[in-house]
Amino acid sequence: MSQRHSDTALLDAARACVAERGIARTTVADVARRAGASRMTVYRTFPDAATLWSSLLTREVGMIVTDAQATAAALPSARERLIEATTRAVVALRNDPVIRRVIELDGERLLPYLTTRRGHAQEIAIAAVREYLRAGRRDGSIREVHGDAVARLFELVVRSLVTASPALIDDPATPAIDAELRLMLDAWLRPSETTR
């Protein structure tokens, strides 16, 4: 397979198609055409359309989480890094063209991940939070917490904010909501004065 038809090129083509018209209105043939590949090339890489869409969404979330972590990396404490990375990820997910289009047009595809199961994208986020929590307990910036429970709760909070993003895109209160999220997370994680 040529570089032109690599996993990355096919996912880039899928991203462009989904950002334009959503998942339900995009076919594997559309992705192949956008990538300049054959349908069989797509199917050799992704055995079915569901795997293609899942891989696209996982990559999208993974890149946003990685970018948010990189932006926060220079902050002095793990608590500050976690709060910065979380709020940046929420804003980026809210504005991401693929995530927005899927929420707006293909909400039924997200419903299982909102109600009954976690996908690979959610596991990426939970693992990142767990690492921040461990680092925060080591540097004393995060109180003693049940790491698994808090990491999962973090993901649920972020998930709810992201799925509500159509209501927040043009809301003049959204910057204030983002600021309040920072304060809420800080109050939740900060050690009490008596334990410092």
Give descriptors for this structure:
mainly alpha, 11 helices
What does this structure look like?
With 196 residues, the chain is mainly alpha-helical. 75% of the residues lie in helices and 0% in strands. It is built from eleven helices and no strands. It has helices spanning 7-21, 28-35, 39-45, 49-72, 78-95, 97-105, 107-115, 120-139, 147-163, 165-168, 174-189. Helix 4 (49-72) packs across helix 5 (78-95). The longest helix is centred in the first third of the chain and has 24 residues, at 49-72. The protein is elongated and about 60 Å long. The chain starts with 6 loop residues before the first helix and ends in a 7-residue tail after the last helix.
Short description:
The protein is mainly alpha-helical.
Can you lay out the helices and strands and say which pair or pack?
Blueprint: H1 7-21, H2 28-35, H3 39-45, H4 49-72, H5 78-95, H6 97-105, H7 107-115, H8 120-139, H9 147-163, H10 165-168, H11 174-189
Return the string of H and E elements.
Answer: HHHHHHHHHHH
Please tell me how large the radius of gyration is: 19 Å
- What is the averaged pLDDT score? 89
Shape: elongated
Q: How many β-strand runs? A: 0
In angstroms, what separates the terminal alpha carbons? 57 Å
Q: In this structure, how is the largest beta sheet organized?
A: none
* Range of helix content: over 70%
